[in-house]
Amino acid sequence: MVKGKLLRLTAIALIIILMCPCLAGCSGNGDDPASAVSGRTVTIEVNTMYAGDEYGDIFFDAVAKWESETGYKVHTVSNTSDEAYKKRILMDFQTGAEPDVLFYFNGVDSNSLVANKRVISLDEIRSVYPEYASNMKESMMKASNYDGRIYAVPVNGYWEALFVNAKALNELGLELPDSDMNWDGFLDLCAKIKAKGKIPIAASLSEIPHYWFEYCIYNHQTPDNHELVPEFVVDNTAQAWIAGINDIKYMYECGYFPDNTLYVSDEVSKSMFLNGDAIFLLEGSWYASTINERSDSDNFAVTYVPGTDTRKTTDIIGGLSTGYFITKKAWEDEEKREAAVRFVEYMTADERVSKFAMISATALKNGVEYTGEASSFYKSALDMAEGATGCSEAVQDRLPAYCRAPVFENMQGLMQGSSDITDAVREVIRRKKQNN
């Protein structure tokens, strides 16, 4: 009897031993995805620019939650984004010490990574993971300057748009510009505002000419070519610059800017806008918090700068200049590939991007999910950013101050006619070539 029981226990023990590998494999495909391939925890290295950044807490909180939910581990290296950081990143790639996931700049700064095939394009990632970055607008994601393909999934950026003293405009019996208004309609609206005794546009062309410079030349371009710097005064880019500056001159001559726009400070011109003496102010998303903190913030709104047949009204100046790259190093590692893809998907999901973005520009198809109690002013900014159809960074950022000076530091002469606009653009081109 004892001998029979012993045999049965031995058989049961043998069955359990044989089942153990199967049980281990099954657990890897269920509660612990990080163990699916090898049975060990997969750790990916992620390099970001969130050191000391206001978004650092949001980022590290999200990392902790992702680790808890997936079983994967993340080793983060975060640095302040400066020129030394950029050099260090490039050196890491040259020495084979690159991370698995990199939060970094698009465009010129990452061109060498693209050229040397050290990062993976969205096309290649989607050949294996078709839904990768499917929550993003393709038109808002920045392609590499090197080969025209998209490599980084963006989070948040900035925008430049038309701030409106809606209360002052309504008191004139006039309606807020919307996505359907074109440039001619905007000029007509400015004429009506002026006729009613108000200043249409608050601006200091002496101190801050670049906002109107950007949008007026953008009106003769598209999101695909606005960032180009002219090479010759006869090329299409230079002609767009000349036409755009002439448009500013036309507005100046019509009296749509303050009478002292060529001398007044930016601070004083903003005061004109805030107190209702002027109706419009062209500014960046960073100025939104200044208005939102006011007790009368609901008297203001954000809308698009009306466009032309070339630039759609809903094509904005903005920047999504940083994003998440997956490196070749991670992509070619069977275990890390899955972890890297899932990490980027998690960090660029609507919920996470919304926390980073607030009211700044994003590429989210569904727009930002604002969880706070938004004022009507903030809601208008959110609607504007969500409805953007195209995005181009400011071209002035591609030129050092010395090269921009013939236009930016000479607005008085250009507006009053003592300096020739074509000659000014020609001088910008000459200085750019000299600077190179």
Describe the fold and architecture:
The chain contains 18 helices and 11 strands. The protein has 436 residues and is of the alpha/beta class. It has 2 domains: 156 residues, Periplasmic binding protein-like II (D-Maltodextrin-Binding Protein, domain 2, 3-Layer(aba) Sandwich); 224 residues, D-Maltodextrin-Binding Protein, domain 2 (3-Layer(aba) Sandwich). Strands 5, 6, 7, 8, 9 and 11 form a 6-stranded mixed β-sheet that branches. A 5-stranded mixed β-sheet has the order 2-1-3-10-4. Helix 2 links the parallel strand 1 and strand 2. The N terminus is likely disordered.
At the fourth CATH level, what is the homologous superfamily of the largest domain?
Periplasmic binding protein-like II
Order of helices and strands: HEHEHEHHEEHHEHHHEHEEEHHHHEHHH
Mean pLDDT: 88
* DSSP, total strands: 11
Number of domains: 2
How many strands, what sense, and barrel or not for the largest sheet?
6 strands, mixed
Shape: globular
Strand content range: 5-15%
CATH topology of the largest domain, by name, is: D-Maltodextrin-Binding Protein, domain 2
**Low-confidence runs of at least 5 consecutive residues:** 1-38
Helical segment count = 18
**What Rg do the Cα atoms give?**
27 Å
Euclidean distance between termini CA atoms: 96 Å
What's the architecture of the largest domain in CATH terms?
Answer: 3-Layer(aba) Sandwich
Structural class: alpha/beta
* Name of the level-1 CATH class of the largest domain: Alpha Beta
User: What's the helical proportion of residues?
Assistant: 40-55%
